[in-house]
Design goal:
The chain is an alpha+beta fold and 218 residues long. It is built from six helices and seven strands; from the N terminus they run H-H-E-E-E-H-E-H-E-H-E-E-H. The protein has one domain: VC0802-like. The chain has a five-stranded antiparallel sheet. It has a two-stranded antiparallel sheet with strand order 1-2. Helix 3 packs antiparallel against helix 4 and helix 5 packs across helix 6. It is globular, with a radius of gyration of 20 Å. InterPro entries: AceGlu_kinase-like_sf, ACT-like_dom_sf, ACT_Aspartokinase, ACT_dom.
Length: 218
């Protein structure tokens, strides 16, 4: 895998070593080989620079994390209101809260947080301030939010990868709460309920690796 793929996977829980520890290797464009201490004779995993990297796989891996919560906000004509997002961020700033992602539509947006930032003590007043200051039509707090990261340099050049991901989850009635693809096009982020995240990971692996020698458990 590439350094970039490793960083995307690490965000959702795939972590072997501290990010800052490999900065010298990244800057010098030196490949890293991760070995299994129980089986040191096996080839291991190579993490290498993106330059001249080629893979015949659509995706390299899937990682997940259940450490998130989300706030859904709906307001009619939200997209026409100048300064709406600025007002929202100022409220979060007052509570010393940072956000992870903010996917949006025409009349709504979802703010995704690290769950550890929002305590039971501050949640009621936070929601009250947002409701009163932004005059929202609907607020919904989702505290069982999980994030899936589907990552692969091969996603950039393959058509239909996102369709396969969505269809694999739909076949098992796994609801997608949010989907977002970055500008780099090497990763797709999905939001699902925590009680479905493990099955979602299995279904995506089964879809992309079922004929490539990797096994998934039911």
């Amino acid at each position: 895998m590439t350094y970039r793929e490793m960083r995307e996977l690490a965000y959702a829980g795939f972590s072997v070593f501290h990010d800052e520890a490999i900065i010298p290797a990244i800057e010098a464009q030196v490949p890293i080989v991760i070995k299994n201490t129980d089986h040191p004779n096996l080839p291991g995993t190579v993490i290498e620079p993106e330059q001249n990297y080629a893979s015949d796989l659509e995706i390299t891996g899937v990682a997940s994390s259940s450490r998130f919560a989300a706030l859904y906000i709906h307001k009619y004509l939200l997209n026409r209101e100048v300064g709406f997002t600025l007002k929202l961020l100022k409220i979060l700033y007052r509570y010393d809260i940072s956000y992870e992602h903010m996917p949006s539509g025409i009349d709504d947006l979802t703010i995704i947080f690290n769950q550890n930032q929002i305590t039971d003590e501050i949640l009621p007043s936070l929601l009250s301030d947002i409701r009163e200051e932004l005059h929202t039509d609907q607020l919904e707090w989702i505290d069982d939010y999980a994030i899936l990261m589907v990552v692969g340099e091969g996603m950039r050049d393959k058509v239909g990868v996102v369709d396969r991901i969505v269809n694999a989850l739909a076949r098992k009635q796994i609801g997608i709460q949010m989907i977002n693809q970055g500008a780099s096009r090497i990763s797709t982020m999905l939001g699902v309920h925590q009680n479905q995240v493990n099955q979602a990971v299995r279904e995506i692996y089964r879809e992309f690796f079922k004929n490539k020698g990797r096994q998934t458990d039911d």
